[in-house]
Amino acid sequence: MKVMKVFLVLIVLGAFLAAGGGIGLYYWAQEDLPGFTKLSDYSPALATTVRARDGRILGYFYREKRFLIPLSMMSPITVKAFLAAEDSGFYQHEGVDLPGIFRAAVKNVIAGGIVQGGSTITQQVIKSMLLTPERSYERKLKEVILA
């Protein structure tokens, strides 16, 4: 009976230490997080269309031939294909796929380095627009907090 009490106390103590460590890690990581204004101010470089007097397209100037298309003009099949390829659980999670991150963490530990990220579309947007592309646990934690 005494062994059971000691075991229970150790479990509770371990849970408190883990929770305290998690909270401390969260506050440490969120100190220098960027704001979300970059997302609303997003203005990618687009192709410039050169037209003749009669409106015919003569050509384009661009670094990347990019045209913005509203989601309403995209085929629903295209949207479904994109979601299936990039983030099949998009409608089931709230920006972070914890089982996916856990699976990636296990693979990274087995490989002895970062070989997989477990990112959702939300996390990919955060990484490419607000954070750096570096592969580190610190950046991944910041990505999860922002997502």
Structure description:
With 147 residues, this protein is mainly α. It has one domain. Helix content is 52%, strand content 6%. It has six helices and two strands; from the N terminus they run H-H-E-E-H-H-H-H. The protein has a two-stranded antiparallel sheet with strand order 1-2. Strand 1 and strand 2 form a beta hairpin. Helix 5 crosses helix 6. The longest helix is centred in the N-terminal third of the chain and has 28 residues. The termini are far apart. The mean pLDDT is 83.
Summarize, please.
With 147 residues, this protein is mainly α. The chain has six helices and two strands. The longest helix is centred in the first third of the chain and has 28 residues, at 2-29.
Task: Kindly list the characteristics that best describe this protein.
147 residues; mainly alpha; elongated; 52% helix; two-stranded antiparallel ribbon
